[in-house]
């Protein structure tokens, strides 16, 4: 019955997403039609072999289930006698025999039996066939990612600008198409995967209980063999989706490494920027905290580069050259300060909620962990709790660290510009430097919604508050 429930969406969802299905199938046909290189053929052949192998395994297991049901529950006309009379009992492929009423004529019974058998065969083929088809399709996309990543090896810094531009264009177009097809495939199978997880997980649990009960009571028969094969089919379907999902994710992420391994540092700035745009979409699952951490560190690096650029401002330069360098410095300094302010406006509320939620989570998790240690009930769940505490604490430290780093680098601008020999420069240049120093007096910080400045002091204060709350909660729950 579970097979019929899951088979229905496997029929209607591809029909509902028929445009995506058409695009995917057309892409597979085009890829095999336009195949010319031996290396690409080997890669595609390897992934196609895995897809065929999965199809054979799934179909064989389903065929065994249907064959066992057909052999053990073939049409029969048994008559059970009792004191009150006789009763005819007729088998059906699915369901109990009582579903067939004694008054049903033999032609009607046979028609009903073969209709159910045909439906079972069709559902079994669709159930296993759809999984195998999606498995093969996802593997095909994995193969295309691998071929695409290997094709970038032909790009070298010895090629001229036109050839590099053409190859970057071809790579980016193919990469964008594969990412789009991966998303279309996910749109088709996401709901089906959810139903598979729920139904197959439930079926595996029920079948496992049935097998263990019969094994314990010594009542093993052919039905138990069928149940065992059913568990295998359900488990295999779950493994197939997990395996191909992992494989697709890995191959897609390898695009980032493949393009980064090219000698972009020896290429023109426009080519390097194009390669950067390719790398950015290849990062499929960037964490928000890690992303913001990287952004703040990038601004810190720009402040450090800006501060080191003051070494080029000397009293030996001419007036207009000094004027130009001071102008460049002040414009860049103002831009970095503005970016820091904008970044703080974006994440200050998030930092506040992170402080509150992570602090509360750490306190509750620590109480749970200590209670488990006290009662001697340590298990995998307690290990999970310990990891959770570490993750929450590391996030708090990350924001404190980058806040401290940003504040220090911004403050160094004042010292860096002050070291310029302004006392040997014209009065107008010295006044410009004075304005920059005055502007550097403004604090450049990350804040928790303006309530707390994120730095090492804030981290120590947050830790003290968490320990205080932990002590209060421990006393309240004791």
UniProtKB/TrEMBL annotation:
GO cellular component: plasma membrane
Record membrane topology: Multi-pass membrane protein
Any single biological process term in GO: signal transduction
Location(s) in or outside the cell: Cell membrane; Membrane
A molecular function GO annotation: odorant binding
Family: Belongs to the insect chemoreceptor superfamily. Heteromeric odorant receptor channel (TC 1.A.69) family.
The protein, known as: Odorant receptor
UniProt organism field: Fopius arisanus
Gene it is expressed from: LOC105264046
